[in-house]
Amino acid sequence: MDRQTISALAHADHPIAAPISPAHVERLLARTKLKTGARILDLGCGEAAWTLRALELFPETSADGVDISPGGLAAAAKDAQARGLAGRIRLHETSAAGFTAAEPYDLVLCVGATHAFGGLAPTLEAVRSFVKPGGLALIGEGFWEQNPSPALLTRLGATPDEYADLAGTVARMEEPGFRVVHGHTSERGEWDEYEWSWTGSLIRWAAAHPGPDGDTALAAALDHRDMWLNGYRGVLGFVTLLLLRT
């Protein structure tokens, strides 16, 4: 069972796919104040939970969602149809790094998907190329709430500069020509809800599918849970920043 399949199963009950509550997703989207005719791009959209809510909040806008997961895109298409939004969103099964567009966008999202570009810096460069001057981006990224131990870094396969602290993350976000105009730092309860959902969904799937795949899913869930509870809980934070392209 590959990593993409495990991730899809783990996020089955948490389509936002980031440690953020629906209420805070809506609050962040409302802050964009998109105008009639605005164009939205979601890089690494998954089931397009963010983008579909944006389309509901801002009538007469349109969107493109990009992801490599056929299952995620199928779920997004089904949800869009059920919510009467199918005619306003185009879904693209391709890598975020390989996507191209003929016109710039008013809002570009990349939340919890900076790995698709190889990290935050290349993500910001790519996102900026898609945002029209004066347009907006919503970027969600991890940051160190506390200095990680060497053991935790080894387990995460990370380096100390993989993330900055919160102030450093804001500075990194602004460096390539953005200004932070709003943001949300995920609360401990949001993180816990996300992680309990991630591990619990995978454990329940494993129990319903005995055999090699079930064993692989269960091992992944238990390893992830241990790394969270005995490793990065309270050490790794998550922040979603609304950026204005200068």
TrEMBL record:
GO biological process, one term: methylation
InterPro entries to which the protein is assigned, alphabetical: CFA/CMAS, Methyltransf_25, SAM-dependent_MTases_sf
Coiled-coil region list: none
Tree of life domain: Bacteria
Any one GO molecular function term: methyltransferase activity
Residues covered by the Methyltransferase domain: 40-135
Keywords: Methyltransferase, Transferase
Name of this protein: SAM-dependent methyltransferase
